[in-house]
Amino acid sequence: MRRASTFALVALVALVAVSCKAPERSPAVTPTPAPPSIVVRADAGVPAIPDAGAPPPYRTADSTVRLDPAVVGEGKTFMVVSEGADATKVGRAILASGGNAVDAAVAIAFALAVVHPSAGNLGGGGFAIVRTGPGKRLALDFREMAPAAAKPDMYLDANGNVTKDAVLGHRASGVPGSVAGLWDLHHRLGKKPWKELVAPAIALAREGFVLDAVQAEVIGKLVDKLAAYPASAAIWLPGGTPAKQGDTIKIPDLATTLERIAKDGPAGFYKGKTAALIVDEMRRGGGIITSADLASYRTAWRDPITVPYRGHTVVSMPPPSSGGVVLAMTANMLSEIELGTLPWHGVEHVHWLVETWRRAYAARNELLGDPAFTKNPTAQLVSKAYADTLAKSIGPRATPSKDILTLLEGTHTTNLSVVDKAGLGVVITTTINTSFGSCVTVAGAGFLLNNEMDDFAAKPGSPNTYGLVQGVANKIEPGKRMLSSMAPTIVENAKGELVMLVGARGGSRIITSVWQTISNVLDFGMPIAAAIAAPRVHHQHLPDHVGFEAESIDAVTEQALRERGYKPVWESFFGASNAILRTPTGWSGAADPRGGGAAMGD
Hints:
Blueprint: E1 13-14, E2 71-75, E3 79-82, H1 85-96, H2 101-115, E4 125-133, E5 136-142, H3 178-189, H4 194-207, E6 209-210, H5 213-221, H6 223-227, H7 230-236, E7 248-249, H8 252-264, H9 267-270, H10 272-285, H11 291-295, E8 300-302, E9 305-309, E10 312-316, H12 323-334, H13 347-367, H14 378-381, H15 384-391, E11 413-419, E12 425-431, E13 489-492, E14 498-505, H16 510-522, H17 528-533, E15 537-538, E16 546-549, H18 555-563, E17 568-571, E18 576-583, E19 586-591, E20 598-601
Parallel strand pairs: 16-17
Antiparallel strand pairs: 2-19, 3-11, 3-20, 4-5, 4-12, 5-8, 6-7, 9-10, 10-13, 11-12, 13-14, 14-18, 15-16, 18-19
Helix pairs in contact: 1-2, 2-3, 2-4, 4-8, 12-13, 12-15, 12-16
């Protein structure tokens, strides 16, 4: 694991809150003037080691904290970043041969379905944000859907407790959306022939790929779960032992499935042989996805959520992703706070981050759901007026999460980023939920199925795998898309130029990871490598504690936070991000050291 780091990172964002009495306010903070564009400060390089004689950068609380470097790539005209080195190479080759960013993104996503099995997928879903020109942005929703036979109480036992069926096994899976999403993205915006984009993944599956350290570690932790499903064990536990780093993995059944998709498009997955194999697998394990569920799956193009921040425009996903709403609420609440003047990961910095997240996640958890089933108050939530009301409720101490009110009435993931020479930018986040999803591989088809049904509120008011306590807006209903935390995001400057692309994996920590990357650049002037690798903090309303990555704050800061009413918890899981940032000479990409991968340019 990681990681000594030269600085620590803490973020606080909350969306709704207010108690009966008027709260105390923190000392007034001067608003930050809006800069014309991203400017990386001269002192914002990777922090020097303590004995180098240089002052600690970003005014960190502990200058002895060390930073593991991100995997960085530089490019003059294009850049590709993903969590799989082989997949990144595929995307670079597509761009170098005349493809556009969408072509590269589609090819990378299919390659990740082979080389990054913990999250890359055919059997899951996701979201995409695309920027086609100044002010021209698109959002594609290819989230999984609940099967027609799904019921609100399907994961409750006789005592009303949530069973493991929501996270493990055949009943945990929603109807996959990834193949339909990649097809629709390419059909609308791609240039190269579809078959050419699937071909590299076919070759990786049939000829083999070398298992990396990250995937090998995950497999080692899931031996018992994978062993319960013969088709999964045959691939990932050869001879009964977990595949290890450096092993060459071949998945001929997956190659054959990809060949059907290359030839027939979505029909090669949602109908015919592949669909029959999925339905057969469901019958063997008591799952509920039917051929009718598969044939009726559709994607949805949606209007992205946009919010101004520090002279830039942040663009992200709308519901059923909660990413854009929480990011917008965070940006609006913090827009009047001059974060860049505060000691980075000092007490005040952490305080403001956590209190804004507390309010934002409270609203997310109670009010948001699939817009086809829930009347989301999105416009109110992302409005500056609402944010100002919430910000006024932030005092100098921690607000107990139980006192947070929304004030409104509700009526394991992987990310890739690509920008091409024409300025077309794409960020795609896909998922099968937890690592290796349901752990069920479709026999004869070679791919894992998701366990996204756990992203619903199986029992409103009770926590899911990620500790999120959600309301009836996200209850299980047939044909419904489960609420997500995925947050593929782009940032434009005041001229409408694309300057940043960012996304993350990590369940409920996705949004806070994306925010901290953006803020590290816009507020603290960090280069993208430092912004990605910086230690993180997380808060999501409930549970009412603040998660800190190892060595992210010092003992003095920890004690000061406790005195303000915070409950620090040291955690090891903070997902992984990747991002691309415009530089004076082109583009700089960074892959998170927490998750592996690679960044490559021209």
